[in-house]
Design a protein that fits this description.
The protein has helices spanning 15-20, 33-45, 83-97, 120-134, 157-160, 173-180, 199-206, and strands spanning 4-7, 50-54, 60-69, 103-111, 139-144, 184-198, 214-216, 225-228, 233-246. It has 247 residues and is α+β, with helices and mostly antiparallel strands. It has a single domain, classed as 3-Layer(aba) Sandwich (Aminopeptidase), CATH 3.40.630. The two termini are 27 Å apart.
Length: 247
């Protein structure tokens, strides 16, 4: 697919079309409270780190969000176990305090349903890396959501993340795209995102009964959701995989 990739800083008029673009996220994934509080702010407060792809008709067909943050700040240094949630909090905390960022973290790469399967996700990832380097950064990290992990929700992420094929590339397709872009698996973020909600909400989001105590396998979830009939809620803690590319 022939596309034009621009930063939102250069094309601010694409803000509304960007958020109107369809996606394929499972509904429960969009209910993370940290994400709901911060994700929409990335486009308005870090527009240089948001890339948008337009097709030949000018339609937005993909976007890539990233944020700058200070990984080497006091009390940090290591990629956090709370992954996606933590890096969003760090990025906006650093922005508020005026801290100098030293690292860029990927936040999302989203491709419109009709444009999937064209290699566009890899191109957006590479464009994100190129953008970070052009802005003077020396590394990009990513709390990656492996896109085939949902097929094996009960396998620990620490086992799944380090599986490789005979050619040495990761077993998971999305981890493999990151590896081909120059990143390497570094560690697991065991609590990268958390969705806690009432059983009624989980039933509405998933169409599942949530009528049994214990673990529930939910389509699209990377790990089982813990259901408590006694307390009337269910909690999903999503593990991700930290990958890093140093320029």
């Amino acid at each position: 697919m022939d596309v034009k990739v621009s930063s939102l800083a250069d094309r601010p008029e694409l803000l509304e079309p960007l958020f109107e673009m369809a996606d394929t996220w499972p509904e429960f994934v969009t209910q993370d409270m940290v994400g709901n509080a911060h994700y929409g702010r990335v486009a308005t407060e870090f527009p240089r780190f948001v890339l948008v792809a337009e097709d030949g008709r000018g339609e937005v067909v993909a976007h890539a969000f990233s944020v700058p943050f200070a990984l080497d700040a006091e009390g940090r240094g290591e990629l956090p176990a709370r992954g996606w949630d933590q890096v969003l909090v760090w990025a906006f905390s650093d922005l508020r305090r005026g801290a100098e960022p030293d690292t860029v973290s990927a936040i999302s790469v989203v491709v419109a349903p009709h444009a999937q399967g064209t290699g566009l996700s890899g191109r957006m990832l590479t464009a994100m890396h190129d953008n970070a380097r052009a802005l003077g950064f020396r590394q990009v990290v990513a709390p990656v959501r492996p896109n085939a992990k949902h097929l094996e929700p009960r396998i620990p992420m620490r086992e799944y993340a380090f599986r490789v094929r005979s050619d040495g590339l990761p077993h998971d397709p999305w981890l493999r795209v990151h590896a081909r872009a120059g990143a390497a698996v570094e560690s697991v973020a065991p609590a990268s995102m958390t969705v806690a909600a009432s059983l009624e909400e989980w039933r509405r989001w998933t169409g599942l009964p949530f009528d049994a105590e214990g673990e529930v396998e939910v389509p699209g979830a990377l790990a089982p959701v813990r259901c408590s009939l006694t307390h009337g809620h269910a909690v999903y803690v999503e593990p991700n995989v930290w990958m890093r590319r140093v320029f």
